[in-house]
Amino acid sequence: MTINQRIIQALTPLGLPVAPDTDTESRERCFVFSADQTSIFYCDDAPLLYSFKVQVYLILPAEENGVALLDRAVRAMAEAGFSRPEVVDAADENGQRKVLECETQAIEEEGTYRWL
Question: Which of 26, 35, 42, 108 is most buried when burial is the number of CB atoms within 10 A of its CB?
C-alpha cells in the first residue's frame, strides 16, 4: 500500500473528498494532502528505512463549525498508524484551513513498503 492509499483509506470514512496535491479552489469542503519522503537508513548503499512527513489540509467554509470533524480526522490518522497529528490553524479570507501534520515510517521490502 502506498502512502497516498494509506491517507485516503484513513480519511475517506469521514465523508469528504480526499485528494493528493489538488487545487482546492473548486471545492468548499475537502481534505487535501501531501507527503514528503526521506531515506533515513541504508543497507548495502541502498535506502531501507523511510520517513514520511505528512500534511493533511481540512478545507471548510469560514462559517462552518468543524471542531468535531477535525477531531475525527486527528483520530483517524492516529488509528491508521500515523503519529498523532499536530494541528495548525491556517485560515485565510477564503475560509478555514486546518493543517494536520504527522509522520510515519516504512521499510522497503522487494519494492513494497512495510509500514511500521
Answer: 35
